[in-house]
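Hello,

Our lab assistant flagged a job as stuck in the queue for most of the afternoon. It eventually completed. Since we weren't sure the result was trustworthy after the delay, we are filing this so someone can double-check. Below is the sequence as submitted and the structure that was eventually returned. Let us know if re-running is recommended.
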Amino acid sequence: MVAYWVARSKVNDPEQYKKYADLAPAIIGKFGGKFLARGGKFKILEGPEKFQRFIVIEFPSLERAVACHGSPEYQAAAAHRRKDGAGELEVAIVESV
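-- returned structure --
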């Protein structure tokens, strides 16, 4: 069953965050992930307006999405985002119906 990686992101240091954003797509693709939404126009209907980017990635399964997030390659890329608070991210993975 496919699963969706849903993330909300706030970029505090665009230059440092870009290092993460440049690496992540290839890693995500390695695990079968396909971007459905990445940045772009959005409208917040409920909740805080803290986040500026919204990302939705489809994976072949919940297990593949979790494996991607936990992989050494992804964690190394994410270190760029975490460095000095360059970005804040909330991620949830949910199976489709």
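-- support follow-up --
The delay was a queue issue, not a problem with the job. The result is valid. Residues 14-30 form the longest helix (17 residues). The chain has three helices and four strands.
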